[in-house]
Amino acid sequence: MTFTTRIKEEISKLDNNEIERRSVIDAFLRYNSLIRDNITITLENASVTRFVYKLIKETFGISAKITIRIQKRFRVKQIYILEINEKVEYIKELLNIDKEPLIDSDEEKIAYLKGAFLGVGNVSNPKTSGYHLEYILDEESDAEYIANLLNYFRLNAKVIKRGYKFIAYIKMSESISDLIKMFKAINSLFEFEDTRIYRDHKNMVNRLNNCEIANQEKTIKSGLSQVEDIKYLEENDLLTLIDEKMQIVIEYRKKYPESSYQELADIISLETDYKVGKSGINHHFIKLRKIKENHLNIEKK
């Protein structure tokens, strides 16, 4: 079962008041039904089918005809077809179906988004891919309308065209979490948040590891460069130009070429009478490099 299916099944089991029912069924019929002389709705999820059937009965006082078919293409699955053959004009007029939805309050807007999600919504599995929640619609105006509703709640929605469809989508994990919370799908919210926390922690650990590796590589490169400077001084009899403290630092750098300044300072302070810090080690190697550069400049002249 996909994460989308789990959310939709949880939503379909929640109770809705009269205002919510009307907005939910309004959105569902607009985006996931064929409206002609009758209204035909095709679904694949039994739980959502029961929910929509119940909404139709409670909102319009009629019972939809249910047909179950077995689809064998690609994989065997049941298809549920609901048909509304009465009060069609009444329903179209009540929901203002040929014009913009009649929704004003925040409660109605959330219910409308919920109904649209049940019909044409999809959310990626947060465990296996990036965060992405979308509404797949036939008309650009419908996608813009959904995006505007999402943005009313500051969910940072955008619209793109994909093939012959228009997609209203949100990608920020916080926004997806907020929308699931507005749908009151608490179990799905906990699952999403648990996965998000785990992934964020894992990403943080990876970033810290990458940073540590980069620092180690930088330390090793710096240490080997300093060993080369020391070798140059030795080959050109320049060690007589340095004082006793720098002699100690050079000796320990040759022993520990891959150690950081702080590690080198700790070792020297522990094993000798010379108490030095990280900045002191750095100062010695700057001085060492200057001696080498001055000698190279003299040699060029």
| DSSP strand content | 5-15%
Low-confidence stretches: none
Q: Do you know the CATH architecture of the largest domain?
A: Roll
What is CATH's topology name of the largest domain? Endonuclease I-creI
Q: What is the count of structural domains?
A: 2
- Strand order within the widest sheet? 1-2-4-3
Instruction: Tell me the major beta sheet.
Output: 4 strands, antiparallel
Order of helices and strands: HHEEHEEHHEEHEEHHHHH
Overall shape: rod-shaped
Q: CATH superfamily name of the largest domain?
A: Homing endonucleases
Class computed from helices, strands and strand pairing: alpha+beta
**DSSP helix fraction:** 55-70%
Total count of helical runs of at least 4 residues: 11
CATH class of the largest domain: Alpha Beta
Radius of gyration, in Å, reads 34 Å
Q: Strand tally, please? A: 8
Describe it:
The chain is an alpha+beta fold and 301 residues long. It has 2 domains: 3-184, Roll (Endonuclease I-creI), CATH 3.10.28; 205-300, no CATH class. It is 60% helix and 14% strand. The strands form 2 sheets. It has a 4-stranded antiparallel β-sheet with strand order 1-2-4-3, with helices on one face. The radius of gyration is 34 Å and the shape is rod-shaped. The protein starts with a helix and ends with a helix. The mean pLDDT is 84.
Can you summarize this structure?
The protein is of the alpha+beta class and 301 residues long.
